[in-house]
Every structure is written in structure tokens, then in C-alpha cells.
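Subject: Cation channel sperm-associated subunit epsilon-like

B.,
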Amino acid sequence: MAEIFIQVVFVFYLNLFKYTVLSEDTHAVITSANYESFVDNMQKTYFLDKNETIQVWAKVVPFPWQDNRLIPGISDPFLLELNASCVEDVVSKGVVTRNMTVQISQVPRNANTSSTQDKTGNATFHVGIFEESQDETLRVETEIIVGCPPGRNISVYRSVENCPAFENYTFTIPSGHYRSDFISPFSPATTPKTVQYDFTSLGCPLQGNYYDIFKPKLQLYENGEFLRNVSASYVVFELNGRTDYSFVATMAEVGCLREAQTYQKMIDDIKHLSDVSFAWTPQNYQSCFDNVENGNMYQPYEILNETGLSALTWESEGVYVFKATVIDPEYSFCNLTTVFAVRVSGMQRDHDELIPFLVLGTSIFGLFSVIFIVFVTSNTF
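Prediction pasted inline below.
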């Protein structure tokens, strides 16, 4: 009889404190006198960028007639906020499971605070099981780092990935089509410029038609995995100093209330910058859609957007090498830049295709002219 009693007590305490590790994705299943299991899907660490949300869940399966409440919490409520929702399910008599889903995001900043002053830092999120009889609530937790996620970058969408002709390629920019320095006032270069195509950095060039407007499609990646298309505003800078391109929309056409920033203005405002392509960033970007001021609103609007009016327009053929920079300070904590090339063609081909039509048109016009002259002459005599 004593042996049976000892076995019963042993099994009871074994079930009371049982702990079984399932996997890294589904955390430990823990049981006690009040609940059968407690599981979650939380990772050890998360990175949270601007305008993003982390979603996690935790589930408790209590023993019959036991409490199933879950308590979420954040160590820094000035950095993060949460929105929790619960679903209960009656699985047997007296057993009601609870599944809590929590969405975690940044606390919205004060209206008087600039987006470049958005708070970064670390905080801990936890979910605990409510137990009145326990001095310390059993809980699971994860660390959330608010800032730029490691490995996050942008790239340009390319329809062609294989182009061996550009692996050892040089091209020439005609004189008068580029500038040798970027400080105003500048003069067009007087000699041609030969450039070695940097295939390692640029990959295959995008294809542009001389007669079409052009806008690259930027894509957001993290550790090589595609996340989404970039919807934020960005600017482009031609790294070889080419001046034979422009933008199709003016500041007035896009609805600016004052003069918008331009790359040249940004370069002129920042003296002694070793790489002028860094002159325009999210930190110094200013919108032209507030604070009405007088100015020349018929200048080209240089800020591009996935759905915006402005786009590039070409004034020559050849290879253009651009650096794209996301300048929207609301988009990300990361400094998002990429380089790409565009090979513009079509002007000479369209010209060659036009010649036969001109010849045919001239011939037809000449034929009708001769017929008309003969007709008039015959009627006269």
C-alpha cells in the first residue's frame, strides 16, 4: 500500500513540473496543476523598422475549471505599444483554451517631433499566465530592437540578369554631355569621357527607349529575401556627371506650394563633401507641400515615387549610371541606397525607320505634282 502511495505522489509531481522543449519556433510546453500546456511562436529577438508591426501568439490549455487568463506586457511603454486579442475555445467539459494574438508597434511620436527624431532602442515583450497561487507569474518573452534591421537594403528590379557583353564593357560620353565637377556654376566638359562599366556593382543595365519616360522600380530586401516594392519617395544622381537627361514634371505640376529641393541645391548647401551623391538624405529632406512661399515653380521636379507624376526623360543615347537614395524620412531607419545603369537607345533606329516613309511620301507628292502639272497644261492648250 505504501509503495502505491509513493508511486501516485511521484506521478503527480512529475506532471506538476513537466517541461518539454519542442522546437525553436514553438517554444516550451509547460504544465502545472492549473494548466496542461502553454505554447507560443515567439522568436528570441525581433527587429522593428518604421511603420512595421510584429505579430506573435501564445496559447494556454488549462485543466478543467482552471483560469485561462494571459497577461501581456512591455518593459518600455514609451517605445512600444501593443494591441492584443483573444479567442477562446471549449475543447471539453470545463476546459476552455485561450489563444492570444498580439500586434506590437512603435508608439506614435508627438506631432511636434520630427520623423528624423524617432526613438530607437530595445524593449522586452512578455506574455504570462495568470495564477493567483503563484508569487511569480510564469511567462515567455522576446527582445524587440527598434531600428534598422541588419541585412536590409534596396535594389532595382531587372528583367534581364544575364548580359555577358557588359562584363568587360566600356562606353564613351560625348563632350558637352557631362560636367567634370558639381559645384555651381559649372560648364560642360569639352572632351569626351571613356568609362569602364562596373559590372560587379551594376549588374545588367536596364533598358530605356529614347522616346519614352523612365522610372526604375525599387525593391526592398532583407538578407537576400524580397520583402516588397518601395513605395517611398527617392532621388537619383548620375554618377558620371551626365547632364543630358531631365524630368517630365515641374514643381507646379506635382502640386508644390514652394520650391522643391534639387540635387544641385543640396550640393551647393553642403560644402567640402567628398562624395556629392550623399548630399541629399532623409535627414535633410524637406517637403514642398507645406509652407506656401514664392519661387520658381516651373523647375523640374526631381523627386520620384512609385505612383508620382515625375519620371526621367532622355536627351541623348548611351549608358547612364545612377545612384538611387530613399529620402522619405517616414519610411525606414535604414539608409537605403543602390546603384544601377540604364542603356538608352532607339533614337537612331527610329530615325532609320523614318527615312523610307519620308522617301515614299516625297515620291508620292512628286508624282501627284507631275500629274497635276500635266493636267493643268493639257487643259490650257
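The longest strand covers residues 80-92.

T.
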